[in-house]
Amino acid sequence: MFLPQVVADSEIKSFNFYQGGIIYQATVYQNVIYKLISDFKFSDRQGAYLTACDLCENGTQSLVSAAADAYYVWVDVRSEAKARAILRLCYADKMTESLPESTARSV
Length: 107
Prior knowledge:
CATH architecture: 2-Layer Sandwich
Strand content: 35-45%
Radius of gyration: 13 Å
Number of helices: 3
Largest sheet: 7 strands, mixed
Shape: globular
Helix content: 25-40%
Number of domains: 1
CATH class: Alpha Beta
Structural class: alpha+beta
Distance between the termini: 38 Å
Number of strands: 7
């Protein structure tokens, strides 16, 4: 099992990309493109890390970035669909406020 990487938000540069009529946030870290899948309040550091650990346990490479006011969970774009399915299974009762779709904007 791999553990998620945790980095300061200042170490990554996020950008937007367009896919299927929706604009998503993404970043590149150590030559891997990650897509933003969830965000957490600064007070919920444990929730962000446990979510990333759940993804890693299921074979999905993840990254946690820590900003001054929030934590962000990113997943390798090559396994993003798998990550969404894992999160829906693990966090079905909690996903309304932090579902990854909330990180995207429709065009």
